[in-house]
Amino acid sequence: MRSWGSCMNLPESRARPGEWQEFRHDSGAVLGFRLLRSARRTVAIYVNRDGSVLVRSPQRMPFAEICHFLRERWDWLHHHRSRFLADPQPPTRMLGDGESLLHLGEQLVLRITSATRLRAERCGQELLLGIPEKLTGDDSPVVAVVEAWQRREARRIFPERLAHCHSSMQALSLPVPELRIRKMRSRWGSCSRSAVITLNLELVRMPLDCIDYVVTHELCHLVEFNHSPRFYDLQAKFLPDWKERKRRLEGLARQ
Hints:
Structural class: alpha+beta
């Protein structure tokens, strides 16, 4: 659940596709992992919630270099695999009438009513969902209408938070990045060298201060495209309480 470079962590439960490989550590421990080669420049490691590991590498990188990369990050890798295996992901909840949905850190109660078409509208602390009667009893339309509403909210909120965080870092003269929103299985956000910031749709569930933490993290990658001490010093300069926000984000994600 981590890439070497510009990404944010997100608990994950599904393994990724790829060629099956094994790495033997100096301690004698053997790690099985999926290797996915593609047209990329860096190596990335992802630890999924079920403890499985995916490694993404450049197409022509020698396997020996990939093993060297794994050896250098073995302590980090072992720590996160152990943590996920000791704290398995809870089962997925069904979305039914009266269930709660986390939105911007608040619990909204779902109220499902009969309607002529799929629709969603927030009313106070309730999210009113209109589902055609012929579709009631099937969870799929509920999931679809909730996700469509979340996307509308994300398209409204994320640009505002990006503008706010970018303005607070104006001393760096950062370029104005392009913003993209999509569902991601292993990242809260990512930043490319071409100044494209992608935010996970699931981030719309989190409080604004957690969203700002992810956005600030990715903006810092426009200066330091790594997770070096310089990167964290820069992040702390503009967000002194980033560790507290990160802990809150991870705690809400586990819920």
